[in-house]
Amino acid sequence: MMRACQRSSCLLLAWAAFAVVTASASGADRFALRGEIVTPEGVLSDGAVVISGERIESVLRPPFPDGLRVVETGGIVLPGLIDLHNHLTWDVFPRWSAGTVFPNRYEWQQLPAYLSALAGPHATLISGGHGPAMARYAEVKAIAGGATSLAGLYANDLGPGFAPPYPGMMRMLDLGSRLYPDGTPEPVRYEVFPLVLPQSTVEEIRADLASGRLRSLLIHLAEGSPHDASSAMEYRILKARGLLMPGVTLIHGVALHREQFEEMHRAGVGLVWSPRSNFELYGATADVAAASEAGVTISIAPDWSPTGSDGMLEELAYAARWNAALPKPLFTDAQLVRMATSVPAALAGAGDKVGELRTGFMADVLVVRAARGDAYHALVRSGPADVRMVMVGGRPLYGQKALVESLAPALPWTPIAVSGTHEEVALPADATLGDWATLTQGLDRAMQKVGSHLGPLTSQ
User: Fold this and answer.
1) Which residues, including other chains, have CB under 8 Å from residue 129's CB and lie 6 or more apart?
2) For residue 15, what pLDDT is reported?
């Protein structure tokens, strides 16, 4: 296997070549995507997003200017979904259940069944050098679920010689977002166990948040039953360490209640809601009714494939079903869509760059099959089978053959099966990972050796 430092350089060169080829293949000049357009102000039943290079030039209504290349998408065009809570290399595993619920995350993380099914195999695969392949497979899974930006890929999983930025297909907000000038440290930090950070690190984080060098601190906290005292205590410890401050976003928060949510709102602290995994592991989810009433900014994310959803669209649909089953729904469909687009963009400190179809923003675009009736209603009931295209920075990466090849015919498109549909993906050239068949077959063989197997791209 190639040494990690050499591999990192090769990956960066591969991404650069991929970007050049994509730019050439798609024209990288100017074109428009026509369909139902989800704008910050609402839905245009017939409009077009004009893309020039990697950015959005404008959003137009017909008639369109002469000479503008207009691509008929036949779908709903919206910002790419933004996932602030994932554990990317774990998404290669199939679903897992212990057959019971737990008071907190520390209980199931010590369970022999979890250690043998997930933690042990994951550690063996990573130590065996499979992390980059796991990341690439899971990245395609996230893109198939409509995501264009994600947090939750760990540098240690990519090999001892890895150095950011990660040259991925999508935007890795904490390791390689491509939203800032080259050499700029990413202003997003993601911590799974924030309470064990040394006090010197906490002070550094506080200073970076105060100065603006760090725009977003995403931390797992209060992950357990609403009645679990130890999970609730985590909030008090976090507060005592001085991390209840603007720029901080809590992930999970199942053990929090109205008083804490009101305090979070006053402090400018956000919340990432992951309902499916919460119900699977703890039999309950965060009190988003109290959080919403308190004014807390709430986004939605899938957590990971073993107990959560396979991607953002699936988690959005899960939340929509849960919301609709309430005696009085908490959120409108439009609010749920914003919880997967503009809201997480703002929580990541990138609300001026992604998350909306707005002039000057990055052309990170998701196109979903149109349906009769309200577009927001259709979106929160969509799944991976409904995806027509995913585009990052004006580059089509994934989608249905006719649409993506009309925009980028020169890319090396690879057919893959997703949710009973045939999609195409454009993988960056990487001699160490190989093509899609080589990647998936190699991963599956490695996982079988540790008693598991490669999970599907989507369970829908």
Assistant:
1) 1, 159
2) 46
Q: How far is CA 455 from the centre of its chain?
A: 18
Give per-residue pLDDT as tens, 222-259. 999 999 999 999 999 999 999 999 999 999 999 999 99
CATH of residue 52's domain is 2.30.40.10
How far is 410 from 415, CA to CA, in rounded Å?
A: 15
User: pLDDT below 70 — which residues of the chain?
Assistant: 1-28, 460
Task: Measure the N-to-C terminal CA separation of the chain; round to a whole number of Å.
Answer: 35
Q: Are 346 and 216 in contact (CB under 8 A)?
A: no
C-alpha–C-alpha distance, residues 444 and 316, integer Å: 29
pLDDT of residue 460: 67
Q: Is residue 415 within 8 Å of 421, Cβ to Cβ?
A: no
Rounded alpha-carbon distances, angstroms, from residue 69 to 35, 51, 66, 72, 310 = 14, 10, 9, 10, 35
* 342: nearest Cα among 300, 294, 285: 300
Segments forming the whole domain that contains residue 322: 82-347
* SS3 state of residue 218: strand
Q: Are residues 39 and 156 in the same domain?
A: no
Q: Where does a domain end: 304, 332, 347?
A: 347
- The pTM assigned to this predicted structure is 0.94
> For residue 459, what pLDDT is reported?
81
Judge if 61 and 98 occupy the same domain. no
- Rounded CA-CA distance 255/283 in Å is 12
Q: What is the CATH number of the domain that holds 298?
A: 3.20.20.140
Q: What are phi and psi of 130, to 5 degrees?
A: -90, 0
